Amino acid sequence: MAFDSFTDFVAMGGYGLYVWLSFFLSFVVLAGVALETLLAKRQLVKKSRQLQQRQQRLARRTANRAAVGDGNEPKT
Amino acid sequence: MWRWLHPYAKPEATYNLLQKLLPWFVALTLVTLITGVIWGLAFAPGDYQQGDSYRIIFLHVPAAIFSMGAYMGMAIMGGIALIWQIKTAEWAIPAIAPVGAALTVVALLTGAIWGKPMWGTWWVWDARLTSELILLFLYVGVMALYFAFDDARTGAKAAAILSLVGVINLPIIHFSVEWWNTLHQGATITKFERPSIAASMLIPLLICLAGFAFLTVSLVMMRLKNEILRHELHRPWAQQRLEQD
């Protein structure tokens, strides 16, 4: 341990403001990138669900049209 | 080697590899970074000239080194994207650029905060600081160019070319402290002779370097996974993957 007490540790030999400010800002910047990445992932999950729903809706509509008929079937 | 590498041109294979490796890299990041920072902040001895202000080195040097390392990685991916037209390499560009830019910002911020008590100024327009600032602009330029085109592949090509041209800045940053008279001190560990730093400070610094290396790789892997999914979103495998995790 390079410091005698916790107060000494916080004071950093009078450079406390500079040392802690630089560690705090670095953390904010790097954590910001990580957070943005995680949020983007969540956004992708949402987008993927929407895409799947649309695909299912489209498939259902095609199936319905085939079952009910839209008047264009060949006459028997 | 080509037979081994070639499957990874397929985005799904790369995604699965990233998925497998990522937890290990995140774990390594946490272990090394926490160890290094605590060691550097609390256990390394104070500097005989700079007192405790020198402890900023444990962030400043790793961030600066990997701001350049990330750029090199991005340029290599740009080269691969241009030569072999591999999509995954193109997507690596927007995956790496924000991480590199963040590391550059950290290097500049910590440098400024360290400069204030030691040099008496936050900023000087000397060679080392200015070339590092240009690195930030290069990252921003690469990102802007990547997203500036309606066609993503055209944007990727333009960004790849800029990233390759920008490599010229890396030796300028590295040797700026030798070529010009600068306020910034010379190289401490990245030189061929013995490092001019005591072992009690060097060891935590090396641990922090490893921590930043793992952090850079982890963040890039996370972002590359996102990029792959973003482009493959219409494919069933990507949709399944997003539902799973």
From TrEMBL, chain A:
Q: Which GO terms describe its cellular component?
A: plasma membrane
As for membrane topology, the entry says:
Single-pass membrane protein
Give the source's domain of life in one word: Bacteria
Keywords of the record, alphabetical order, are:
Cell inner membrane, Cell membrane, Cytochrome c-type biogenesis, Membrane, Transmembrane, Transmembrane helix, Transport
Q: Which GO terms describe its biological process?
A: cytochrome c biosynthetic process; cytochrome complex assembly; heme transport
**Which residue stretches belong to region Disordered?**
57-76
Transmembrane parts of this sequence: 17-39
State one Pfam family annotation.
CcmD
Q: Known InterPro entries for this protein?
A: Haem_export_protD_CcmD, Heme_exporter_D
Location of the protein in the cell: Cell inner membrane
Q: What functional role does this protein have?
A: Required for the export of heme to the periplasm for the biogenesis of c-type cytochromes.
- Hey, which family's this protein in? Belongs to the CcmD/CycX/HelD family.
UniProt name for this protein: Heme exporter protein D
**Naturally occurring in which organism (per UniProt):** Idiomarina rhizosphaerae
The encoding gene is ccmD
TrEMBL record, chain B:
Q: Where is the Cytochrome c assembly protein domain?
A: 26-184
Q: Does the keyword Cell membrane apply?
A: yes
Q: Which GO terms describe its cellular component?
A: plasma membrane
Any one GO molecular function term: heme binding
Q: Where in the cell is it found?
A: Cell inner membrane; Membrane
Q: Which Pfam families match?
A: Cytochrom_C_asm
What processes does the entry annotate via GO biological process terms?
cytochrome complex assembly
**Is the keyword Cell membrane assigned to this protein?**
yes
- Membrane-traversing stretches: 21-44, 56-84, 91-113, 133-149, 158-177, 197-221
Membrane-protein topology: Multi-pass membrane protein
Q: What keywords are assigned to this protein?
A: Cell inner membrane, Cell membrane, Cytochrome c-type biogenesis, Membrane, Transmembrane, Transmembrane helix, Transport
Q: Which InterPro entries match?
A: Cyt_c_assembly, Cyt_c_biogenesis_CcmC, Cyt_c_biogenesis_CcsA/CcmC
Organism's domain of life?
Bacteria
Name the family.
Belongs to the CcmC/CycZ/HelC family.
NCBIfam families per the UniProt record, alphabetical: ccmC
What PANTHER family does the record tag this protein with?
CYTOCHROME B_B6 PROTEIN-RELATED, HEME EXPORTER PROTEIN C
Q: Provide the function of this protein.
A: Required for the export of heme to the periplasm for the biogenesis of c-type cytochromes.
What is the protein's given name?
Heme exporter protein C
**What is the organism field in this record?**
Idiomarina rhizosphaerae
Q: Cite the source lineage.
A: Bacteria, Pseudomonadati, Pseudomonadota, Gammaproteobacteria, Alteromonadales
Whichever gene encodes this chain, its name is ccmC
